[in-house]
Amino acid sequence: MTGDVRVDRAEPLPDSVRAQLASAGSATVANMLLRRGLRNVIMSGVQPLAAGQPSLVGPAYTLRFIPAREDLDTLTNYASSENLHRRAIEECPPGAVLVIDAFGSTAAASMGDMMAARLRYRGVSGVVTDGGYRDSGAIKETGLPCYQRNNAPKATPVALHPVALDQPVGCGGVAVYPGDVLLGDSDGVAVIPRALAADIAVEAAEAAAYEEFAALEIRRGRSLFGLFPGTAESRQEYDTWVAAGRPGLE
Question: Sorted alphabetically, which Pfam families does this protein's record hold (predicted)?
Answer without folding.
Answer: RraA-like
